[in-house]
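The authors assume throughout that readers already know how a fold can be written as discrete tokens. What matters is that the chain and its backbone geometry are given together, residue for residue. A single example would do more here than another paragraph of explanation. For illustration, here is how one protein appears when written out as sequence plus structure tokens.
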Amino acid sequence: MDVLSGRVDGAVVISNDSDLGLPLRTVGEHVPLGVVNPSTGYLASALQGHPDEGVGRHWWRQLTKDDYTVHQLPDPAGGVTRPVGW
């Protein structure tokens, strides 16, 4: 709704859910869109596209194990310690 009402200049979605194919294509017709795949597999085909479709400037990225591990909070964080094995 924010995209359709002009309240945002772009959007980033973190998902690999193919059910979002139609909504994301619609968003991409109005604002630049970034899609981040948080899984280790291929990006769902319904979420794939071309950077110049719609309004253009779209992009895709797949997160890696390093993306997760280098962005962990320190242990402890705010007095809370990481469980053993994490």
Summary: The helical segments are 21-28, 65-69. The radius of gyration is 17 Å.
